[in-house]
Amino acid sequence: MSGKTNFWIRWRVRVGYPVGLAAFWFARPRMAGLLFGVGIAILGLLVRGYAAGYLRKHKQLATSGPYAFTRNPLYLGSMLLAAGFCVASHSWISTILLAVYLAVFYPVVIRREQSELQTHYGEAFVEYASRVPAFWPRFSAARSGKEHFSWALYRQNREYEAAIGLAVAMLILWGLMLWR
After folding, report:
1. Are 76 and 83 in contact, with CB atoms under 8 Å apart?
2. Torsion, CA 138, CA 84, CA 91, CA 12, rounded to 10
3. 42-69 residue pLDDT tens
4. Rg of the chain over CA atoms, in angstroms?
5. What is the pLDDT of residue 146?
6. CA–CA gap between residue 19 and residue 97 (Å, rounded)
7. Domains and CATH numbers, the chain
8. pTM for this one?
9. Distance separating alpha carbons of residues 70 and 59, to the nearest angstrom
10. What's the Cα-to-Cα distance from 129 to each of 46, 64, 112, 135, rounded to whole Å?
11. Nearest 5°: phi and psi at 18?
Protein backbone atom coordinates (compact mmCIF):
# COMPACT_ATOMS: atom_id res chain seq x y z
CA MET A 1 0.00 0.00 0.00
CA SER A 2 1.51 3.33 -1.03
CA GLY A 3 2.05 6.25 1.35
CA LYS A 4 -0.53 8.30 -0.53
CA THR A 5 -3.14 5.56 -0.15
CA ASN A 6 -2.29 5.19 3.55
CA PHE A 7 -2.91 8.91 4.01
CA TRP A 8 -6.43 8.68 2.55
CA ILE A 9 -7.24 5.51 4.48
CA ARG A 10 -6.08 7.03 7.80
CA TRP A 11 -7.94 10.28 7.24
CA ARG A 12 -11.20 8.65 6.11
CA VAL A 13 -12.44 8.17 9.68
CA ARG A 14 -10.81 11.32 11.05
CA VAL A 15 -12.62 13.43 8.47
CA GLY A 16 -15.82 11.39 8.65
CA TYR A 17 -16.75 12.42 12.18
CA PRO A 18 -16.62 16.20 11.61
CA VAL A 19 -18.40 15.79 8.26
CA GLY A 20 -21.14 13.83 10.02
CA LEU A 21 -21.46 16.44 12.77
CA ALA A 22 -21.61 19.23 10.19
CA ALA A 23 -24.28 17.33 8.25
CA PHE A 24 -26.41 17.23 11.42
CA TRP A 25 -25.69 20.90 12.13
CA PHE A 26 -26.97 22.01 8.72
CA ALA A 27 -29.90 19.57 8.67
CA ARG A 28 -33.40 21.05 8.48
CA PRO A 29 -35.53 17.90 8.47
CA ARG A 30 -39.21 17.83 7.65
CA MET A 31 -41.56 14.93 8.24
CA ALA A 32 -42.11 13.95 4.58
CA GLY A 33 -38.40 14.04 3.80
CA LEU A 34 -37.58 12.20 7.00
CA LEU A 35 -39.97 9.38 6.15
CA PHE A 36 -38.79 9.16 2.53
CA GLY A 37 -35.15 9.30 3.64
CA VAL A 38 -35.71 6.48 6.14
CA GLY A 39 -37.11 4.38 3.30
CA ILE A 40 -34.02 4.96 1.13
CA ALA A 41 -31.73 4.31 4.09
CA ILE A 42 -33.53 1.05 4.91
CA LEU A 43 -32.88 -0.06 1.33
CA GLY A 44 -29.20 0.65 2.00
CA LEU A 45 -29.37 -1.39 5.21
CA LEU A 46 -30.92 -4.29 3.32
CA VAL A 47 -28.16 -4.20 0.69
CA ARG A 48 -25.47 -4.04 3.37
CA GLY A 49 -27.10 -6.78 5.45
CA TYR A 50 -27.54 -9.04 2.44
CA ALA A 51 -23.86 -8.55 1.55
CA ALA A 52 -22.66 -9.17 5.11
CA GLY A 53 -24.39 -12.56 5.06
CA TYR A 54 -22.07 -13.67 2.26
CA LEU A 55 -18.80 -12.10 3.39
CA ARG A 56 -16.13 -14.41 4.82
CA LYS A 57 -13.39 -11.79 5.34
CA HIS A 58 -9.87 -12.99 4.55
CA LYS A 59 -11.12 -16.58 4.11
CA GLN A 60 -12.98 -16.75 0.82
CA LEU A 61 -13.59 -14.50 -2.17
CA ALA A 62 -17.26 -13.45 -2.04
CA THR A 63 -18.88 -13.97 -5.45
CA SER A 64 -22.43 -15.04 -4.55
CA GLY A 65 -25.54 -13.13 -3.59
CA PRO A 66 -25.09 -9.38 -4.08
CA TYR A 67 -21.42 -9.96 -4.97
CA ALA A 68 -22.64 -11.47 -8.25
CA PHE A 69 -24.01 -8.01 -9.17
CA THR A 70 -21.33 -5.67 -7.80
CA ARG A 71 -17.93 -6.21 -6.21
CA ASN A 72 -18.74 -3.62 -3.53
CA PRO A 73 -22.30 -4.11 -2.26
CA LEU A 74 -21.33 -2.87 1.23
CA TYR A 75 -20.22 0.47 -0.21
CA LEU A 76 -23.28 0.61 -2.45
CA GLY A 77 -25.45 0.06 0.64
CA SER A 78 -23.52 2.76 2.50
CA MET A 79 -24.12 5.15 -0.38
CA LEU A 80 -27.85 4.44 -0.15
CA LEU A 81 -27.69 5.04 3.61
CA ALA A 82 -25.99 8.38 2.97
CA ALA A 83 -28.57 9.25 0.29
CA GLY A 84 -31.34 8.47 2.76
CA PHE A 85 -29.71 10.74 5.31
CA CYS A 86 -29.41 13.51 2.72
CA VAL A 87 -33.10 13.30 1.84
CA ALA A 88 -34.05 13.14 5.52
CA SER A 89 -31.81 16.10 6.40
CA HIS A 90 -33.50 18.37 3.85
CA SER A 91 -30.24 20.29 3.45
CA TRP A 92 -28.23 20.97 0.33
CA ILE A 93 -25.18 21.77 2.47
CA SER A 94 -25.39 18.41 4.25
CA THR A 95 -25.86 16.69 0.90
CA ILE A 96 -22.84 18.40 -0.64
CA LEU A 97 -20.68 17.62 2.40
CA LEU A 98 -21.58 13.93 2.29
CA ALA A 99 -21.26 13.70 -1.50
CA VAL A 100 -17.79 15.26 -1.45
CA TYR A 101 -16.72 13.00 1.41
CA LEU A 102 -17.88 9.88 -0.44
CA ALA A 103 -16.36 11.06 -3.75
CA VAL A 104 -12.99 11.73 -2.11
CA PHE A 105 -12.62 8.65 0.08
CA TYR A 106 -14.62 5.79 -1.46
CA PRO A 107 -12.68 5.47 -4.75
CA VAL A 108 -9.36 5.31 -2.88
CA VAL A 109 -10.64 2.73 -0.39
CA ILE A 110 -12.25 0.63 -3.12
CA ARG A 111 -9.04 0.63 -5.21
CA ARG A 112 -6.99 -0.39 -2.17
CA GLU A 113 -9.35 -3.24 -1.32
CA GLN A 114 -9.39 -4.43 -4.94
CA SER A 115 -5.60 -4.48 -4.92
CA GLU A 116 -5.55 -6.47 -1.67
CA LEU A 117 -8.09 -8.95 -3.04
CA GLN A 118 -6.06 -9.41 -6.21
CA THR A 119 -2.92 -10.01 -4.15
CA HIS A 120 -4.71 -12.49 -1.88
CA TYR A 121 -6.84 -14.37 -4.45
CA GLY A 122 -4.80 -13.86 -7.63
CA GLU A 123 -6.33 -15.11 -10.87
CA ALA A 124 -9.64 -15.96 -9.19
CA PHE A 125 -10.13 -12.29 -8.36
CA VAL A 126 -9.00 -11.13 -11.81
CA GLU A 127 -11.54 -13.44 -13.45
CA TYR A 128 -14.27 -12.31 -11.03
CA ALA A 129 -13.44 -8.64 -11.61
CA SER A 130 -13.69 -9.16 -15.37
CA ARG A 131 -17.32 -10.28 -14.96
CA VAL A 132 -18.64 -8.07 -12.14
CA PRO A 133 -18.53 -4.25 -12.05
CA ALA A 134 -16.68 -2.53 -9.22
CA PHE A 135 -19.57 -0.41 -7.95
CA TRP A 136 -22.72 0.14 -10.02
CA PRO A 137 -24.46 -3.23 -10.14
CA ARG A 138 -25.20 -5.16 -13.28
CA PHE A 139 -28.84 -6.05 -13.95
CA SER A 140 -28.35 -9.79 -14.00
CA ALA A 141 -26.20 -11.90 -11.74
CA ALA A 142 -22.83 -13.01 -13.00
CA ARG A 143 -21.96 -16.66 -12.71
CA SER A 144 -21.16 -17.02 -9.04
CA GLY A 145 -20.26 -19.39 -6.25
CA LYS A 146 -22.70 -21.65 -4.46
CA GLU A 147 -22.71 -19.91 -1.08
CA HIS A 148 -25.96 -18.99 0.61
CA PHE A 149 -26.89 -16.16 2.93
CA SER A 150 -25.81 -16.81 6.53
CA TRP A 151 -27.23 -15.07 9.58
CA ALA A 152 -24.13 -16.21 11.46
CA LEU A 153 -21.94 -14.26 9.01
CA TYR A 154 -24.26 -11.26 9.30
CA ARG A 155 -23.74 -11.29 13.07
CA GLN A 156 -20.03 -12.07 12.81
CA ASN A 157 -19.57 -9.11 10.46
CA ARG A 158 -21.47 -6.98 13.01
CA GLU A 159 -23.73 -5.52 10.36
CA TYR A 160 -26.44 -4.89 12.96
CA GLU A 161 -24.29 -1.90 13.99
CA ALA A 162 -25.33 -0.12 10.78
CA ALA A 163 -28.99 -0.52 11.78
CA ILE A 164 -28.23 0.92 15.21
CA GLY A 165 -26.38 3.83 13.57
CA LEU A 166 -29.30 4.50 11.25
CA ALA A 167 -31.77 4.46 14.13
CA VAL A 168 -29.64 6.92 16.12
CA ALA A 169 -29.16 9.22 13.12
CA MET A 170 -32.85 9.30 12.31
CA LEU A 171 -33.77 9.88 15.95
CA ILE A 172 -31.39 12.85 16.00
CA LEU A 173 -32.95 14.21 12.80
CA TRP A 174 -36.42 13.68 14.25
CA GLY A 175 -35.36 15.54 17.40
CA LEU A 176 -33.93 18.38 15.30
CA MET A 177 -37.19 18.56 13.36
CA LEU A 178 -39.19 18.93 16.58
CA TRP A 179 -36.70 21.34 18.15
CA ARG A 180 -36.27 23.73 15.21
Report:
1. no
2. -70
3. 999 999 999 999 999 989 999 999 999 9
4. 17
5. 80
6. 7
7. 3-179 (1.20.120.1630)
8. 0.88
9. 19
10. 23, 13, 14, 11
11. -65, -35
